[in-house]
Amino acid sequence: MKANKQMKSVVEWISPKQDERGSVWEPLDAERLQDQRNVHIVMTEPGKIRGNHFHREGVETIAVYGPALVRIREGESIADIVIPDGKVLRLVIPPGVSHAIKNTGVRPNLLVAFNTTRHDPQVPDTVRDILLLD
How many angstroms from the chain centroid is the CA of residue 8? Predict the structure, then answer.
């Protein structure tokens, strides 16, 4: 997926399949999978925040398993999205769009993130931008 200046964030609810063992869901669809250069799985403790940044070049796709609060700043617009417990939200976030995710639950929660750029700890693609505080 090639980013362009007109690209907007995409928000998609995912329906996990659930049974007595738990739930399963696909964090990324097949069309977007071929463009990914990085994947990471994140467990976040209750009340803690991930993100609070934007990417210079990479398009990041994040699937978040709630409960969580997601805040996105796109230009002058700020949007809050509440993810209920057990629900899954997929976000496709273009470069320059700030994002933060807060675990609003009482147990660790899970997110899976993909990015179209490789992670280079010496030259990170992220720029700090505080949207949420602990």
Answer: 14
Q: Is residue 3 in a domain?
A: no
Domain count, the chain: 1
Which residue pairs from 22-28 have beta carbons closer than 8 angstroms and sit at least 24 positions apart in sequence? 23/86, 25/63, 25/65, 25/88, 27/61, 27/63, 27/90, 27/112, 27/114, 28/61, 28/63, 28/90, 28/112, 28/114
Owning domain of residue 91? 10-17+31-128
pLDDT digits (tens, 9 = 90+) for 15-73: 999 999 999 999 998 888 999 999 999 999 999 999 999 999 999 999 999 999 999 99
Residue 98 to residue 51: CA distance in whole angstroms: 8
What confidence score (pLDDT) does residue 1 get?
Answer: 47
